[in-house]
Amino acid sequence: MDAMTASRGKSAQTVILSKTIFILMIISLAGCGGFGGSSTPPQFDFSMAVNPATQSIVAGKGASYTITVNPAPLIGSVNLSIAGLPQGIEAFFETGFDVNGSKTLGISSTDTTPAGTYQATITASDGSVTRTANISLTIIPAADFTLSVTPNLPTVKAGSSTNYTVNVTFSGAETTPVILSTQGLPNGSTASFAPASLSASGTSILTLTVDPEVADEINLFDIVGTDSAGKISIPSAFDVSPTDFTLDQTFGSVKANAGAVLTGQIDVNGTSGPVSLSSRNLPAGVATSISPPIVNGGGFASVTVTTDTSTVPGGYTLEFIGADGSGQSLTRLPLSIAPTNANAGFFLTASPLDAQILAGNSTNYNIGVSAPGGTIPQLVFSVSSSLQGVTAAITPANNNPGTFLLQVSTSLSAGDSAGVITVTATGPDGSQSISVNLETSTPPPPDDNS
Question: Most buried residue, 65, 99, 102, 441, by most Cβ within 10 Å?
Fold first, then answer.
């Protein structure tokens, strides 16, 4: 059928519908005593049919029924509802309707909807006239086994674990192994099943381990059973209880030559009880020293991070963990290892790694110097930048021979730009360089009302 024929067909449907509505209006007015008669609302009789009346679907799938009202124009004025469907099956009437007097009923199920045949009643009513029709829906199991899980919502401390009992029940004589797994676990949580599969009806224990990086809230995931016949998913959840303390680190984000030593501290906020501190996620050649290793709330521990000249350049995230009776908490140290000159006799660090300012403003970076023997040689500093409108200088800080301040100033001409500032230090046995990132943006125009 070409476009013109289709257009004529739609026009014809529209004309028929309009004429039908007009005739119904005339009948209504006549029935009410003519155009000047009583204002009693019109009442129209109608019939309703559903097609198909019976359907079968696999659990987890959907179905649709077509509901037709006669006369067709009344489909837009009757209210449709459905009753009798069991839990696990949802029904919805699609918006809009066909000019032929039909509307679609959609049915959805889950893969855990119980198998069986269910009856439901569809009702159509315009407020005066009510018609009903029955439908039948048969649910076929998605697999030849059933799955259940307890508990529904356990509470777990950050850094600890909890157990679920997973029950598998086979429905047939012939069985293939049901393989158990999880989907949608939040980052920092892991799951293990014992056993990981079942070849007969039985129980598996799911052990869920929650890292302190998992948010202290209700976390959702699915427990999944799969065999050759299909798959069943059970929605599950766990609630992470908050710890009574938090940790903060004072390093900021740091860039360091391989071989450099960093110093900072971990602050313990909150609890009055003892918190045990440790570190993890250390790359090869990096070690930490925490003193004291146990801190009361409101206290702090001094931390030394030692890198080796063999540490591979790249970006790393060191983690410091605190633990007490309420669970575990963590704080992270972003560390970027830069190439090094192992013969220079000293190493550089810079913090923070990145800074963002408005053009015309200034900012500071901390530059640290460490030496293998502890004695820092006499150094000469120079600074270079890839950015226009940027000037920088190195000055000593805190009367500490190993601490310097990189002071950066920008002019409005810097505008919207991003680049690198490089600090080079030269000693008797060679040079080391370290770089930081700077991003500038054009300041907003002044307020005319100011």
Answer: 65
